[in-house]
Amino acid sequence: MTAKQPRTELDARYSSALNPRPGAKDVTATDWAEAEHRLRTAEVFWITTVRPDGRLHVTPLIAAWHEGALYFSTGSGEQKAKNLAGNSHCALTTGHNSLSEGLDIVIEGTAEQVTDPARQDEVIAAFEAQYRDHITSPEGIFHGFGDSIRKGNDLLFAVVPGTAYGFGHDGQTFSHTRYTFLGLSRK
Fold first, then answer.
1. Cα separation, 168 vs 26, whole angstroms
2. The pTM is what?
């Protein structure tokens, strides 16, 4: 399944357009193509899931953007897997840890486990392309990633965005873009 092209809009309530600074009057929404580029090149993501008692659980992980969905894996006994078994809603975040530059991206959606072996292989190839030697080299920190998923030791999940946000920061100019996905298309 893949997300359709989103409706993209600048949210002036949270952008420099509402609080003008030099250069801020020309603030525009960040194009979805730029957000996708950032998702394809990011190395670290943070996932937020909800525990059975309603408390949040946040942890870093690797993820790969592939054909309109963000994919990640986890062991079946890990807290995020337990949380997703009871509540599949989650958010994945990536960005740049600076106030003066970068684009932070938040993807909100529902995690669905990927069990089809052909789809798993396709997504594993996307991880290998994104993380290169970290996965493909015997010395890589995530070497064996694909085999662990194929053997069922780790679960693979897809999150198709329901809503996404892009928080841009360029010097003293800030933008807040909301991407609304109007539906899903099954592949």
1. 13
2. 0.88
